[in-house]
Each structure stands twice: as structure tokens, then as C-alpha cells.
Amino acid sequence: MVRQLRKDFCGVYYHILSRGNNRSYIFCSDKDRREFSYLLAAFSQHFAIEIYAYVLMDNHYHLLVRTLEPNLSKAMQRLGTAYTQRFNSRNSKSGHLFQGRFKSFLSATCWA
User: Fold this and answer.
1) CA separation (Å) from 103 to 14, 34, 100?
2) Residue 20: which of 4, 8, 32, 31 has the closest Cα?
3) Collapsing DSSP states into helix, strand and coil, what is residue 36?
4) Contact between 25 and 61 (Cβ < 8 Å)
5) How far is it, in rounded angstroms, from Cα 19 to Cα 58?
6) In what order do the strands lie in the sheet with 60-67?
7) φ and ψ of 48, to 5 deg
8) What is the pLDDT of residues 75-88, one digit of tens each?
9) How far apart are CA 95 and CA 105, in angstroms?
């Protein structure tokens, strides 16, 4: 069965989450968390995404973002790939880090 394409919107708030493959850790150290935060900041500027809040748990993360351009899927794919490559290199691992595609939910309001 073919997956449906995501619909990306401009100027919309999203709650995003992604978890580790088999619920494995995606952050093994504070260095991993700093690296992810650095990449998140860089990608938010590159893809014009405003970050309102984020939580980095051991085996998953949550983001509250607002898109300024309809490119959320591309941004999240690039972020996941870049972080996975760095995580695997730093922790002497290989293969998938995240379980499937990221989840995104339209958020009706924001606490601005």
C-alpha cells in the first residue's frame, strides 16, 4: 500500500514527534542533545521554520513549530538524515535511528 503524501502548509503550527527505532535511545548523552539542538536551529533558519518549543526525551522528541514556507517534510527529512549520520558516527552505530516517518499534527493555537 502506498503512503499518502503529506500536505505541507504555510503559516501553520505543527506538533511534531519522532521516536527511536524499536523505541531505542536517540540521545545517549548531553552531547547528542546539543548536536540535535544545533542542527534544529540551523535547519529552522535554512527552511524558514519557527521553533516555539521542543522536548528531547531519551528515545523520542517533540517539537512545536510554525512553518513560514510549505516545506516541513523536506526539512524534517533532512534533519533526521543529518542527525542520524552524526549520531551513528559518534556512537559507532549504523542503520536506521528513527522509527518510520515523523508524526505531525496540526495545532489549532499557540501560546504566543
Assistant:
1) 10, 22, 9
2) 32
3) helix
4) no
5) 9
6) 49-56, 60-67, 13-19, 103-107
7) 55, 55
8) 999 999 999 999 99
9) 27
**Residue extents of the structural domains in the chain:** 13-107
Query: Could you read off the pLDDT of 29-75 as tens digits, one per residue?
Result: 999 999 999 999 999 999 999 999 999 999 999 999 999 999 999 99
Q: Which residues pair with 103 in a beta bridge?
A: 17
CB 48 within 8 A of CB 67: yes
Q: Could you confirm whether domain 13-107 is CATH 3.90.79.10?
A: no
> Are the beta carbons of 13 and 109 closer than 8 angstroms?
yes
Q: If we measure between CA atoms, which residue out of 39, 72, 66 comes closest to residue 51?
A: 66
Show the cell assigned to 26.
536517540
Bigger pLDDT: 35 vs 3: 35
Q: What phi-psi label fits residue 104: left (phi over 0), alpha (psi between -120 and 50 degrees) or beta?
A: beta
